[in-house]
Design brief:
There is one protein chain. The chain starts with 6 loop residues before the first strand and ends with a strand. The chain is of the alpha/beta class. It is built from three helices and eight strands, in the order E-H-E-H-E-E-E-E-H-E-E. The chain is globular. The longest helix is centred in the C-terminal third of the chain and has 16 residues.
């Protein structure tokens, strides 16, 4: 784990849903050899993600667990509502209005928000400004008309 400040990447969903985007980002995270922590404030959203990660492809699944379960520290992908990092993940995914919390120890933090939800966009703008004022190392990604991710800032 790194003592340096992580990269914080904002992902602005415009053409895809969280269900479509999150599994691919988690796959890329695992390909890097990193563990992931998916944090949400809404337990129902975590339930939905939990189910989706088992079923998002017919030929594959993403092994994961819940922070409340035994052996949480051994999970390659952990779903949580807390600001703790029990599996020593290098990548943090914020998928709703959950607190970012202490980012020390993470290599990269992903803040994923729905561009079709005005409240989510407003919250992301506030979060961006706050982090920018703190001198965070940030990037902003949005989807092209073809659905590819393009770095916009």
């Amino acid at each position: 784990m790194s003592d340096a400040e992580p990269e914080i990447w904002f992902y602005h969903l415009e053409r895809s849903t969280l269900d479509q985007v999150l599994p691919g980002l988690l796959e890329k995270t695992r390909e890097r050899g990193w563990k992931a922590l998916v944090r949400a404030s809404d337990p129902q959203l975590l339930d939905d993600i939990d189910e989706r990660l088992w079923t998002y492809r017919d030929d594959s699944f993403l092994a994961h667990g819940r922070a409340s379960e035994a052996d949480a520290s051994r999970q390659p992908i952990l779903l949580t509502e807390t600001t703790e990092n029990p599996n020593a993940a290098q990548a943090l995914f914020i998928v709703d209005s959950a607190e970012l919390g202490d980012t020390k120890g993470f290599e990269r933090c992903f803040i994923i928000f729905d561009g079709r939800n005005d409240e989510a966009v407003s919250a992301a703008r506030v979060r961006w400004k706050t982090l920018k004022d703190q001198g965070a190392n940030m990037a902003y990604w949005k989807q092209s008309p073809e659905g590819r991710w393009e770095k916009a800032a």
